[in-house]
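pinging the channel bc i need a second pair of eyes. not urgent but kinda urgent?? the chain im working w is below, pasted from the shared doc
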Amino acid sequence: MQRANRREMDVCAVKTEYRWDDNAIKYSTVLEPRQQVPISKDGSPPRSNLPTFSYRDLATATNNFRRESIIGEGGFGPVFKGQLETSQVVAVKKLSHSGLQGDKEFFVEVHMLSLLQHPNLVNLIGYCIEGDQRLLIYEFMPLGSLENHLHEMTPDMEPLDWDTRMVIAFGAAKGLDYLHNQADRPVIYRDLKSANILLGEGFHAKLSDFGLAKFGPIADNTHVSTRVMGTHGYCAPEYAGTGKLTMKSDIYSFGVLLLELITGCRAMDGSREPGKEMLVDWARPMLKDRMNYLHLADPMLRGKFPPSVFRRVVELALMCVQDDPHARPHMKDIVLALSYFASQKHDAHAAQSDQIGSQGDGRISSVEEPTNRSPVDLIGAGIDVKEIRALNKDQEREIAVAEAKKWGETWREKREIESGR
């Protein structure tokens, strides 16, 4: 059998979103050259063992792509809820010929998700190439996106409680850690945001939409040079200014995500006063003094969170959004910290004894943590409280992350010992 001729195609990254709003960057059809990915002559994606579906099968699964089946829409096209002949419920993304994306974006999505598989990444089940039709079939995530639960709640939805927010943050961190440190070749996600975190049963978080993902630098390279692409409010300042993309660019975006979970505010909001449209800029004045951290709390939390853990999560977010990318923590450390934070469940009875006050806007007033706590309770390393208070702000933040990392390691070891019994 004669081997099929092959050609090379410049895979390009453009913006994909399930919902468009004034906060998103709307990209033109100018495409950004990326890595070379071979595409076969018949148009099938490379190195993919994913099953293919016929257009007729998918039309049947989605009730002929009726509008009532649409669960989202973005630059690629509408996303439909469907059910395959196997009874599996799926999400079907259909390329819109009048949209911002085309074949190249279709192939990069298939290529990336063919290579990347992890419990905290959305699973690509298959695809369809038939005539000029291009469709992607994903597992269905029944709870929608994190953005829905934070910013687009419907009357039948309950606000996310603190424990659930930490579970979601931990899941997203594990997905990003896989991309950075466990994939065969490191991947920079480049589009971490609440709209791209999909939620399954139990609020199991999965990263989705890999249209902007890029392979990380190799050999002696320190960064990947690329056109600046992403979403306003999440983009790291050094990347926005120079186009030099690193893993630390994703860390900044993760810090913004943590601030979203903490505050319930959008990463970008044009209704805020000039100069504070971005969440980081709005929160920065309250981040200067540790005693003001509780002012950041989302009113929807109604004060139901452990204040000491809350402050440490704020410290972690602050480390992630530092202007100096070298000062940001690594994903492994973030995962360890969040493994501990997610394990510290809110105790309503204990919270009442903390005497946390409430302000007129529903946010929590800053009340100093009890001073009768031991130094180990505060920093986890036996350092005297007075000594800690004498440290400058940067050192406090570094200690907070080191503390969380230590707690995370201890907690994980304890779990491993218990599971081995």
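so The first strand starts at residue 6 and ends at 12. and The CA atoms of residues 167 and 266 lie 19 Å apart. — does that match what u expected or am i reading it wrong
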